[in-house]
Amino acid sequence: MTDRKLWSYKEIAAHIRVQPDTVRSYRKHGLLPKPDHMEDGKPYWHPDTIRVWVANRPGNRARGS
């Protein structure tokens, strides 16, 4: 199922169980994928973009999802 809602730092943080500041730091250090959309200078990602990133990132903590 494709989710049409875009995710901000807050939704990504909830998905990977970290604080939003941690996700901001990941982006600052080039560890997040390029945003799918920018609005008023704020980045947003499609949930599927983040799910693929989570599945492939080193130290993946998502088990059985």
From TrEMBL:
InterPro entries associated with the record: DNA-bd_dom_put_sf
Highest taxon of the lineage: Bacteria
SUPFAM superfamilies for the chain: Putative DNA-binding domain (SSF46955)
Name of this chain's protein: MarR family transcriptional regulator
